[in-house]
Design brief:
Three copies of one chain form a homotrimer. By secondary structure, chain A is of the alpha/beta class. In chain A, the strands form five sheets. Chain A has an eight-stranded mixed beta sheet with strand order 1-10-12-11-13-16-14-15, with helices on both faces. In chain A, strands 5-4-9-6 form a four-stranded antiparallel beta sheet. In chain A, strand 14, helix 8 and strand 15 form a beta-alpha-beta unit. In chain A, helix 2 packs across helix 6. Chains in contact: A-B, A-C, B-C. At the A-B interface, strand 7 and helix 7 of A face helix 11 of B.
Chain lengths: 443, 443, 443
């Protein structure tokens, strides 16, 4: 008996080489975890040095005090230690044990303080009494400690000996950049923040996945340039924007990566003014099989705040798994390498790779002769016996959709969204049609 | 311990002076209730005279027969009395007892009629047998009585003595106008109808609230002129439109007020072609805490029918609580002062005041330098310790929304809708930003 | 007592002459059922000859081999018989018993085949073992039989005698066209396919209903020309398009009719680029009282595939009851005259007639003076006593909607959709307003 089948088989899955990350994502998270990062300082440099083992990262140092847009590059902060000790010499809180213990950008202090004086400098989480909170005091000329609320409650002495051995001094702000040129001057921007100390999901996950993506993409031919930025949040983005203002019109798509290592579903925050990046991410997530949610733009979050400020309004969205501020581990000592899962990291890597590939491969095609359907049969694109069945690869339906919408007005992404067919299948249909000289690429 | 707080506290509630009406709304309804109003006549004049105690109302008299658009100003109707008496002298129906008893614009009649002759002139509500219906016979050269169905059924005599002591004669149509100029020639139009006799919600509620709004606004500086019209329905609006046709392009927003004294949720009927008034009312109602419903435009209702006719197509909507024709008291003797509640009147007063204030204060702002976020900290607009918490006043989020959307293309109302934040909070954020020279008002 | 009533009574139902089809629809389906149709050949000619009894059909013959767009007109196929016989002479499968038994466009064959050889040419439906499938082998240089799976399973002999007495030879492709001119050069296109052998819903239903519609419309005055095409699917449409390419801009609306004889709810597949036909069909179905579903365009289906190809992109949708491929009788011997119901055919006839009438009567009106409402009373369009009640005919609300939207920008269909009022009632309102000189038709 004869039965109708699909025209040809195209494997929808990403090539095997792509499906597994080129480095141990979770291993990199664990390696970077103990380093004390902040807006500036040796921890940032050490982090970029480790990333530099995988990709040929360009390191930028920008001097303290440099004017950048409405801001100035801050003093550099470095810290060697910080302790709260009982008067009888017991070390109760120690930066060496966990770098979250000291408020970011704490100035040096040494002395004996009454409990009530110390209380003005202590941050705890009464609702999560066993966790250390993450707090910073940028630009605040202050000092402070973060500790478990239970520990603080057990500290009932009248006086404590306090010491923070830190330095706030002229130096520089450090960020990393890795650019892969494309055939055109158009670019995709991918960024993550690198200013958080021992926090794994926020944002060692972003650092690890972005490093792996950059490494994988390095060997490839591409239409669009790919620019990866490893930035201290806010001030790093502002500094980069200030120094690259004349070339921002090259950025056609952008993605900020953060909190992409936990096993929650994906959350994508749209760009400010709507853009192809929003449609591409939504399309990929829709066909990813993973749970996801699309969130409208808002002006709070990560560096999309800067890229999407009204004077730039770049087409940049933000991809997350759990959303900042909504998961209990957020900005606490519970956001540690155990909270981040190898499978989630790999899935994020794969999903973002699919998004980047889609953006690079999106094209507009035009039927050579669009009057009626072409006779597929004599071109070997139609099974002789009528009737067709959906299958894993290009179906006749995919090909019909492609041929119908190849009118010079629909990009492959437009088609994929209208037909609700994964982009890769329309891409494959385009290849078949191109080989059969039924369409041409619109220049 | 240190904990993050809102930037500053702005009281979202309307200033205390505004929150209580400047006159006894329910008292005014009760005072106006017994007066017999119609399209024309002494009842309208008496009503406007009472309103004139509160505001400096301009009274217009337009002669009967004057051509106004497709219409002519009707003869003036006045009535002194109307009775149905049994042949043995019992007064069964008496205009003096309730002015709804006589059909509006009844011509004079005196005589004895058989029950079946009289039946041609009697209006009742079989489904609401104890209520007097409200009916009119404008332009009909007719006479009639309205009475409870139960009463009519008890009237089984063969003959009745009928008398209506009325006059339909050349005179004039009367309407009231109160204009408060603004800094610009643009205007907001607020209207209500004044042609219904003893009906409280429809529309003594509108008259009372509009009077109070006009009174309160009188002492204020404003950008937009405010024009309050007290009009006999349909013919009054047509007359005003005819006489003011050359200046209609000044009307940027308009609101017809009717049935706003009962305790039902608000109902807002949109303008014909969509306008800022629709967005403003929906926004205010959304954040009012009161139940409400937005209804699409339709060509039946109150004077928005005239303002939204195709040749004018003005941006005028209609605000109601209960909707005409949908509540059992509508156009019956049950629409009396007890049906109208002081709290509902006050709430309507407050809500409409908020709408008018929003329209007057809506502005477009432009960031002086929109490249990236401004550094709020050095301007005292950012708490030194990161982390923020929503609060009653301006939150950091409000300020970020404002600064992100202050691109010269978003009005405060646009922002409030996109951010889903009450207008007043964005207004306060705008003040902060203006004081900090971060934005300028777009001229 | 006086009670308010509708302005005038307009019967919403279609005139009685229209409501019953001018021919026995189910009878025609039964008469055409036994004929063996295909893309070409004597069965198509015989079918068109029967249709020609009702309407003055123009028959086109296009020679085999003629180039039409990307295709060529195929050889003509005719068949006299086809059998599978057991070696002992029992006739097991016979084209004479059911024309679905032979694969469409089977080439001639005669000989003895082993069961396994024969199996390569046998089509069955294992899931519907008692039904004969419908299969074709256009352009395939093949032969084959279609039989119940149960029969095939009972055929366990080693060898069978096979004979197909057919001919594939130069000849011509045949299609029918019936054009009714209108006052303008604009046209409505209505098409059905005529290439299926003994299948009743797909598409004798379309043939019968289209014939009746053409017959009924023949005697009428119309604004838009009406072009009815009876086409072999795909190649027929392509042939017609090739030969009429220069005049395609006349087609303002188009409808492909298929599977409209079964009792399922209506399914309308929208045109490729959105058009008035989509809005008209949706409006008529919404007010038809029948269940229905609107489906977005897709490039698979009937000849809308050709009309909606990117080079033509005509405003053509497809009306169905059951959707091809989704009902178990589809493309089997169960799609026989019993599956098609007289009432369903009549309902389809009526519904499509209403759509065609709407398209022809859609107009744009403009108020002579749109400033305010016209005074309806002095024109006899308003009951003297205020208050109105919806009724079967034109209500005051219909008239108000019409007068409000007669601004030169809204067609009657636009109005009907916005007001959610059946088109016929707005049409009647338009007549009243036109008679009263309140509007004029926009030229």
């Amino acid at each position: 008996m004869v039965s109708a089948e699909r025209v040809t088989v195209i494997d929808e899955s990403v090539p095997a080489a792509d499906s597994s990350p080129p480095l141990d994502l979770h291993g990199l998270v664990k390696e970077l975890y103990p380093i004390n990062r902040s807006l500036t300082g040796s921890g940032v440099r050490g982090t970029l040095a480790i990333i530099g083992r995988y990709i040929d990262l360009q390191i930028h140092e920008v001097k303290s005090g440099t004017a950048v847009l409405d801001w100035h590059v801050p003093m550099e902060w470095n810290i060697r230690g910080g302790t709260i000790t009982s008067m009888d010499g017991r070390r109760l809180v120690d930066f060496a044990a966990h770098n979250l213990h000291v408020l970011g950008y704490s100035k040096p202090v040494e002395g004996v303080f009454s409990r009530s004086e110390l209380a003005q400098h202590v941050h705890t989480l009464p609702d999560q009494p066993d966790l250390i909170p993450y707090r910073t005091g940028y630009y605040a000329d202050n000092w402070g400690f973060c500790l478990p609320h239970s520990l603080w409650q057990s500290m009932t002495d009248d006086q404590y000996r306090v010491r923070i051995d830190s330095e706030i001094a002229p130096g520089s702000l450090t960020y990393g950049e890795f650019f892969l040129p494309g055939e055109t001057s158009d670019e995709i921007l991918v960024t993550c923040h690198i200013c958080h100390p021992s926090l794994a999901n926020d944002n060692l996950s972003g650092i690890a996945v972005m490093t792996a993506l950059a490494m994988r993409q390095a060997g490839r031919k591409r239409r669009l340039g790919l620019r990866f930025l490893f930035l201290p949040a806010t001030i790093g983005a502002i500094t980069w924007l200030d120094r690259n203002e004349a070339r921002l019109d090259r950025i056609k798509h952008g993605l900020v990566l953060t909190c992409i290592g936990d096993p929650a579903g994906f959350h994508y925050k749209q760009s400010r003014s709507g853009a192809d990046i929003d449609r591409a991410v939504a399309h990929v997530l829709r066909h990813s099989g993973h749970p996801y949610e699309i969130m409208p733009f808002n002006p709070y979050g990560y560096d999309e705040r800067q890229f999407c400020s009204p004077g730039f309004d770049l087409p940049v969205g933000c991809l997350m798994r759990s959303v900042h501020g909504t998961f209990p581990e957020y900005h606490t000592s519970a956001d540690n390498p155990d909270f981040v899962k190898p499978e989630a990291l790999a899935q994020s890597y794969l999903t973002i790779g699919t998004i980047l590939s889609l953006l690079d491969n999106d094209r507009i095609y035009l039927r050579v002769d669009g009057r009626g359907e072409p006779q597929l049969g004599r071109r070997g694109l139609y099974r002789a016996i009528a009737g067709q069945r959906e299958a894993g690869g290009v179906t006749q339906m995919d090909l019909l959709w492609f041929l119908n919408l190849a009118d010079g007005n629909h990009s492959l992404l437009d088609m994929a969204i209208r037909a609700d067919i994964p982009f890769a299948r329309l891409e494959a249909a385009a290849r078949l049609a191109l080989e059969a000289s039924l369409v041409e690429e619109k220049s």
